[in-house]
Amino acid sequence: RALIRDPAVLFLDEPCSNLDGASTRDIEAILLAARDAGTSIVLSTHDIGQARRLAARVLFLHRGLLCEDSPAERFFASPATQEARAYLNGEILL
């Protein structure tokens, strides 16, 4: 429904939480099509796989602070901060 009005920017908070794999795949396909049609998407997620599939840019937040802002490829290949490295390694951040 959020895409009906062809927004310039779409803000999403965990849009695929509690969905099965098929539904997640369908939602991601819709989001990629919207992005390709020119909609900017700001999406929060804890799903690293989803972030890898969808992100062009990553803003990594920890404890309310912006720890990292980088292209997705660089973020996932070599994160600049210890917090991001720990998170990508599956550690629990306090």
Describe the structure.
- It is a single chain.
- The chain has 94 residues and is an alpha+beta fold.
- The protein has helices at residues 21-36, 48-54, 72-77, 82-88; strands at 9-13, 40-44, 57-62, 65-71.
- It has a two-stranded parallel sheet with strand order 1-2. A two-stranded antiparallel sheet has the order 3-4.
- The N and C termini lie far apart (36 Å).
- Helix/strand order: EHEHEEHH
Separation of termini?
Answer: 36 Å
Q: Which regions contain 5 or more consecutive residues with pLDDT less than 50?
A: none
- Shape designation: globular
Helix content bin:
25-40%
Number of helices: 4
Chain oligomer state: single chain
Q: Output the strand order for the largest sheet.
A: 1-2
The biggest beta sheet is recorded as: 2 strands, parallel
Overall radius of gyration:
14 Å
User: Tally of extended strands?
Assistant: 4
Beta percentage is 15-25%
Calculate the mean pLDDT score and round it.
96
Keywords:
4 strands; globular; 4 helices; two-stranded parallel ribbon; two-stranded antiparallel ribbon; 94 residues; alpha+beta
